[in-house]
Amino acid sequence: MPSQVRSTFALPPEPPAVPDPLPEPGIDELRLETVMGALSDPLRIFIVRKLLLDSESYDHPCGWFGIDRPKSSLTHHFKALREAGVTRQRQYGLERRSQVRIDDLETRFPGLLALVAAWEPAD
């Protein structure tokens, strides 16, 4: 595995006073089958793809995605992505914001994020 992977994706700079991330697996705990399982749901791969291609800031609340689903359903999907190690979430008061763990995923699974970015939903 390369010691340093250059990603075509990047996060905007971290703003000051960012809360600590919610519990997530460490980079050495990321498992391909778990990550792929989380990405196997079309809504979850849409979330990750949107974060990769359309991010406007360091992290995003669930309302930014424009998904017309009940909050409980969205909470489940965001939690599945975080627990699989695909996204990182932070709690800002009552709001959770998400970002893709770009560096960790590119290091563990080079090329995976490019595949996610190239994915197009079925009609």
TrEMBL record:
Tell me the segments the record calls region Disordered. Answer: 1-25
Source superkingdom: Bacteria
- UniProt xrefs under InterPro entries: HTH_ArsR_DNA-bd_dom (IPR001845), WH-like_DNA-bd_sf (IPR036388), WH_DNA-bd_sf (IPR036390)
| GO MF annotation list | DNA-binding transcription factor activity
Q: Compositional bias of type Pro residues: which residue ranges?
A: 12-24
Q: What is this protein called?
A: Transcriptional regulator
Provenance organism: Nocardia yunnanensis
